[in-house]
Structures are given as C-alpha cells and as structure tokens.
Amino acid sequence: MRVVASVLLLFLTLIASPAMAVEEPAFVRLSQDGAFEVRQYPALVVAEVTVEGDQSTAASRGFRLLAGYIFGGNDGGQKVAMTAPVMQSKTGGQKIAMTAPVTQSPSPEGWVVRFIMPRSYSLASLPAPNDPRVRLLPQAPVRYAVIRFSGWVSDQDRLKRTSELTAWMKARKLKAVGPAALAQYDPPWTLGFARRNEVMIPVEGQAAN
Questions:
Q1: Nearest 5°: phi and psi at 42?
Q2: Is residue 97 part of a domain?
Q3: Which domain holds residue 29?
Q4: Residue 33 sits in a domain of what CATH number?
C-alpha cells in the first residue's frame, strides 16, 4: 500500500524539504491514555473537492485539483501554504468538521478530498478558486478522539486502528458524531518506523481521562 500512501502525500513532495517546517493546526489535549487522546480543535477553513474512483485514483485526482488551487489556480494567482496532516475518512455521505489540511472521504457520491487552510487565512481572505469543483468552507470547532501509530498504512491498518479507537471510546462513553479519519503527517521519503499516523473520530460530550 506504499503507492496509496505516496499518492496521499504527493503535495508534500512538491513543497516540503527536510529543513522546512509544515504548519499543523493547534489543539488542546483534553486527555491522554497511552496512544489514545481526546483533543479540542478550533474553527478552521478548508478547501475540498469531491471525486469518484477507488481510493488511489480519488486521492490522485483530488490532490491534483486542490494542489492546482494552492499553487496559484485562484483569483490573483496567489500561492497558499500547506499544513499537515493528510487525512482520509469514510463519511457515509455526512459532512464532518476536519482539523487537518487534507482529507479524503469515501461517500455514496465519491470521495471528499480536503485541505485545511493555514490559520493566517479566513474564509473572506482566501483567494477564490478558478476551478468550480474546489469549494472553500468554514469548519466549526470540533473535539476528536485519536489513536496514534507508526508505519505505512494499508486500508486494513486503517480499519484495525479505527476498531481499536472505537472500542476505547465505548469504554469511556464517548459518542461519535462523525466518521473516522486517517491522518498522515510525513512526506513520502520518511521511513516506515518513523511515520506519524493517527485515526481521528469526532466526538461529543466531556472528555474521559
């Protein structure tokens, strides 16, 4: 599944270097239990597209469209910096508030691929996309249950970690309010053991310790 992971992180290959820090969205850690956490994220702005095809094909198409937007395919030809992580999530056709710059979400209509915009931008200050398929949307503050893990991620890995996180949430009476998202933080050249991945599920209610 390295091809899928590399496609998901293609945009980082274009803009990142080993010495370049990539912005990540700020959050408040509400609780931690080993590899599990509950986090609160602030309101964010996203750019997203909906594409069809299998996971790899959808990722490639979605990234190409969104990369076109941030690399100047917008009103004024402005370049917009990327943040991390890359995320993909099974939406079941629902909208979810994301806290990362890119998400890829399978739904009855296809996959939603989403970039989180840098915090220096508001919805009003972002340049308008040239491509009508690119949508700029506000995302409300959201609380996530999270499990952290390393390595290259296959779809089976994603499902396994989602199951583990769901069980942890159930034991702590945390109710999901949206689908799970796979977050990947590293450029393609990062070795498997050093890779930083997370599965994130939006939840309601108070965090459990």
A1: -80, 180
A2: yes
A3: 2-204
A4: 3.20.80.10
10-residue stretch averages of pLDDT, the chain, 209 residues long: 49 47 89 97 88 70 87 93 73 42 53 84 96 94 96 86 96 92 80 90 68
Residue 113 belongs to a domain: yes
Report, in angstroms and rounded to the nearest whole number, the Rg of the chain calculated over CA atoms. 16
d(CA 116, CA 103): 8
Residue 129, strand partner residues? 74
> How many Å apart are CA 84 and CA 97, to the nearest integer?
16
DSSP state letters, 52-115: -SSHHHHHHHHHHHHHHHHBT-BTT--B---BS-EEEE--TT------SSBEEEEETTEEEEEE
What is the number of structural domains in the chain?
A: 1
**Alpha-carbon distances of 23 from 85, 163, 178, rounded to whole Å:** 9, 29, 25
In a domain, 209, yes or no: no
59 within a domain of the structure (yes/no): yes
pTM of the entire predicted model? 0.75
The set of residues, in sequence order, having a beta carbon less than 8 Å from that of 205 and lying 6+ positions away, is 173, 174, 175
What six digits make up the tokens of 174? 């945390």
